[in-house]
Amino acid sequence: MALSMEQRPSASQRVQAALSAAGIAARIEEFPSSTRTAQEAADAVGTSVGQIVKSLVFLAGGVPVLALVSGANRLDPARLGALTGLEIGKADADAVRRATGYSIGGVPPTGFPAPIPTFVDRDLLQYDVVWAAAGTPRHVFPIAPNDLVRITGGQVSDLRPSP
Ligand code: 5CA
C-alpha cells in the first residue's frame, strides 16, 4: 500500500532511522538558516568549517562512490582515482539523488538505498566531534569521527591534493 503524505517519513526522519539502525542515537538539529554549504553549516552550528563533513558523490568507473571531506579541504579527484583504480567523474545532481536518495546540500553520510563505497578524509579524525548533513539543507547532526568511520565502513584516506 502506498504511504500517504502524512505517513511518509521526512528526509531527516529517514536519516534518523538509518543512524538508529547503525546504533547511533543522533541528535539531529534543524536550523532556521541554511546549512547547504559547509560554511553555512559551520556558521549555523557555531563550529569551525573544518568540523563540517562534506558528502561528495563521484562516479568511479561510472559507479557512485562517496567522499566524506572536511569542510576545510578541497578533494583532489586524482586521489580517488588512485584509491579506486578507476576513472573518476563528478556526479551531477540527478546522479547524486539516484545514488543517495537525497538532494545536494542535504546528502547524509549514510542511509542510502544501496551501500556506497566510502572514503573518509583523514583530517576529520583530529576532532572530537564533526557535523554532517541529515537529509536537507537545514538539518545536521554531530557525530564522533570514529563513529562516522564505523557506520559508513569508510576507508580513512588522504583526499587533499598532495603538497
Ligand atoms: N549541508 C552541507 C554541509 S553538511 C553540505 O551538504 N555540504 S556538501 O559540501 O556536502 O554539499 C555541497 C556539495 O555539493 C558541493 O561542495 C559540491 O561539491 C556539490 N554540488 C553543488 N552543486 C552541485 C551540482 N550542481 N552538481 C553536482 N554537485 C554539486
3D structure, described in words:
β6 and β7 form a beta hairpin. With 163 residues, the chain is of the alpha/beta class. It is globular and about 50 Å long. It has five helices and eight strands, in the order αβαββαβαβββαβ. It has one domain: YbaK protein (Alpha-Beta Complex), CATH 3.90.960. It starts with 10 loop residues before the first helix and ends in a 6-residue tail after the last strand. 39% of the residues are buried. The model has no long low-confidence stretch (mean pLDDT 96). 5'-O-(N-(L-cysteinyl)-sulfamoyl)adenosine binds next to α2, β2 and β6.
Spell out the blueprint of helices and strands.
Layout: H1 11-21, E1 29-30, H2 38-45, E2 52-60, E3 63-70, H3 77-84, E4 88-90, H4 93-100, E5 118-121, E6 130-133, E7 139-143, H5 145-152, E8 155-157
Parallel strand pairs: 2-6, 3-5, 5-8
Antiparallel strand pairs: 1-7, 2-3, 2-4, 6-7
The structure holds 5'-O-(N-(L-cysteinyl)-sulfamoyl)adenosine.
What brief labels describe this structure?
about 160 residues, 8-stranded mixed β-sheet, 8 strands, globular, binds 5'-O-(N-(L-cysteinyl)-sulfamoyl)adenosine
